[in-house]
Design a protein that fits this description.
Blueprint (H helix, E strand, L loop, with lengths): L6 E5 L4 H15 L4 E7 L17 H19 L4 E6 L8 H14 L3 E5 L7 H18 L15 E5 L13 E4 L4 H8 L8 H20 L7 E6 L11
Parallel strand pairs: 1-2, 1-4, 2-3, 4-5
Antiparallel strand pairs: 5-7, 6-7
Helix pairs in contact: 1-5, 2-5, 3-4
Length: about 240
């Protein structure tokens, strides 16, 4: 994934983009790339178990906390364009209205790189729904015969999938590693915003260090301390090797 490309990130829930791509997002922003993040749902029903342990807590109170958390995390990463669509989760349903809205967003922002969930997460069907939705909308967005208001069809964009939490169980295979050593402090600050899922902070700290080890070995760059991995939906196509 090259720097200074337009990057659109589609996250199923309030924290997914931070756990799985926060360092990459901050890295791209540091390099001056236009970045937009869409959070489809706040994860009120299925991603906020810790909050539901509070006696008498209401769905609105949980939503308010999750909203504050994700906007605080976005600020820590340097994101200036965050949209919360606040759909219901568990299940997160891919309706025709949602599909049309996302296609229009793709055509108006016109990303070079699209980051979202990998094709299969063994324990989270919301993630699978969003992966399917994002891929389908990218195809529709590229199709000149599909009329969506005054928008023009996009060209093929690079599509990369987040590493799922249950990596091995989900048969995930990394397609690329992004060096996030420079932006890892921002990722740590962003992760700390999510007290509703604080048990994941150490897990994703350890994961970044492990992927940093892989990135060092594969690149020969001993300065890489932390990395994030992504699946590649398509093989690389270009006029030479990626260096």
């Amino acid at each position: 994934m090259e720097e200074k490309k337009r990057l659109l990130v589609v996250s199923a829930h309030a924290a997914d983009y931070v756990w799985r791509a926060g360092g990459t997002i901050a890295h791209y922003i540091q390099k001056g790339a236009p970045v937009r993040v869409i959070v489809l749902s706040l994860g009120v029903r299925g991603e906020s178990n810790h909050l539901w342990k509070t006696p008498g807590v209401t769905p609105q109170e949980v939503a308010d906390i999750r909203r504050r958390e994700t906007f605080a995390a976005a600020k820590a990463l340097g994101i200036q364009n965050l949209q919360c669509w606040e759909l219901e989760d568990y299940p997160l349903r891919a309706t025709p209205e949602l599909e049309s809205r996302l296609v229009e967003e793709l055509r108006r922002f016109r990303p070079d790189i699209l980051l979202s969930h990998d094709r299969f997460d063994i324990l989270n069907p919301d993630h699978n729904q969003v992966s399917e939705l994002v891929f389908r909308c990218s195809v529709i967005s590229n199709s000149a015969g599909v009329q969506v208001g005054d928008t023009a069809a996009t060209r093929q964009m690079g599509i990369f999938g987040f590493e799922p939490h249950q990596t091995e169980l989900s048969r995930y295979r990394p397609g690329c590693f992004i060096d996030i050593t420079d932006s890892f402090p921002q990722k740590k600050a962003a992760m700390a915003c999510f007290q509703a899922q604080s048990h994941l902070i150490q897990y994703y700290t350890d994961r970044a260090a492990m992927r940093g080890n892989h990135a060092r070995r594969l690149s020969g760059n001993g300065a890489i301390a932390y990395a994030e991995s992504f699946s590649a939906f398509f093989p690389y196509a270009g006029d030479g090797f990626v260096v």
